[in-house]
TrEMBL record:
InterPro entries named in the record: HDAC_classIV (IPR044150), HDACs (IPR000286), His_deacetylse_dom (IPR023801), His_deacetylse_dom_sf (IPR037138), Ureohydrolase_dom_sf (IPR023696)
UniProtKB keywords: Hydrolase
Domain Histone deacetylase: 17-288
SUPFAM superfamilies named among the record's database cross-references: Arginase/deacetylase
A Pfam cross-reference name: Hist_deacetyl
GO molecular function: histone deacetylase activity; hydrolase activity
Membrane-traversing stretches: none
Family: Belongs to the histone deacetylase family.
Organism: Chitinophaga flava
BP GO annotations: epigenetic regulation of gene expression
Protein name per Swiss-Prot or TrEMBL: Histone deacetylase
């Protein structure tokens, strides 16, 4: 198992960008401290090339990011002030997701400590997302003939609106998003399958709905690989999630996804996605549980 990680994910960044990005430093540190992984399993991706990025994003958008010419309105839409480091961060994240997907195809599973930038569209960014790493990686696998059919399983509490828009009408990529009905983004795009969840949904109904849906999708789509966005903003402790899933329930979600995919011999590329609990330890522990579940089921 390989884990994409690089200091550019978090450091050095302006002070107003540090939370919740600090989790990307703490996750590998905790996994190493607990002996779940060894340092050799971590790797630093190189930046994605412009050619790779342009397989998914419009040239005009890429040039604005590259040249730091975003308008004030575009920066407000993203939620961050533009900076070369933020752009570089997302370029590296995108390559990290490509790398862990390639590793998963050969070894079963791969993790990106960051990733899941699912609010980025071809021609603009939203919701703290500049480039869509799942979109870029999926297009890379298809163009390189590494996969013929891809299933995006987005279990972040926010709909993967950018990913849905990128693959509208593309029969090679099936987008599945299970998200808060009354949460950001307030204008939803149309995924191949959207399951909007009511505010306050608890662990039992959440898991039941997932367990009824994902096996059917596996049988229907027959993917060569699954891109799994394992956001932990479904937690009851999350400041913005509006759901009531317990930490144990979040772990059960991951165990179910990994067990199902492993049973069907389907590789899995995992990105962390969102998490905004007040206590950073709640976020980091939940994300680390995702790694532990994947390791337990797929093996190291």
């Amino acid at each position: 198992m390989k884990i994409a990680y690089h200091d550019i994910y978090t450091h050095p960044l302006p002070a107003d960008h540090r939370f919740p990005m600090v989790k990307y430093e703490l996750i590998p540190a905790q996994l190493l401290r607990e002996g779940v992984i060894v340092a050799e399993q971590l790797f630093a991706p190189l930046p994605a090339t412009a050619e790779t990025i342009l397989s998914t994003h419009d040239l005009s958008w890429w040039e604005k990011l590259r040249d730091q010419t975003l308008s004030d309105k575009e920066q407000r839409h993203i939620g961050f002030r533009q900076s070369p480091l933020l752009t570089q961060r997302e370029i590296v994240i995108a390559q990290g997701t490509i790398d862990i997907a390639l590793h998963a195809l050969d070894h079963g599973i791969g993790f990106n400590v960051a990733g899941g930038t699912h609010h980025a569209f071809a021609d603009h960014g939203e919701g703290f997302c500049l480039l869509n790493d799942f979109g870029i990686a999926a297009n890379y696998l298809l163009q390189q003939k590494k996969a013929k059919k891809i299933l995006v399983t987005d279990l972040d509490v926010h709909q993967g609106n950018g990913t849905a828009a990128l693959f509208t009408g593309n029969e090679k990529v099936f987008t599945f998003s299970m998200h808060g009905a009354h949460n950001y983004p307030f204008h939803k795009e149309t995924s191949d399958l959207d399951i909007p969840l009511p505010d306050g949904m608890t662990t039992g109904p959440y898991l039941q709905l997932l367990e009824e849906t994902l096996p059917r999708l596996i049988d229907q789509v027959k993917p060569d690989i699954v891109f799994y966005l394992s956001g932990v903003d479904i937690l009851e402790t999350d400041r913005f999630g509006k759901l009531k899933v317990t930490p144990a329930g979040c772990l059960q979600r991951d165990e179910f996804v990994f067990s199902l995919l492993y049973k069907h011999s389907i590789p899995c590329a995992v990105a962390m996605g969102g998490g905004y609990s007040t206590r950073i330890s709640d976020i980091v522990n939940a994300h680390c549980n995702t790694f532990k579940a994947g390791l337990d089921i797929y093996g190291s």
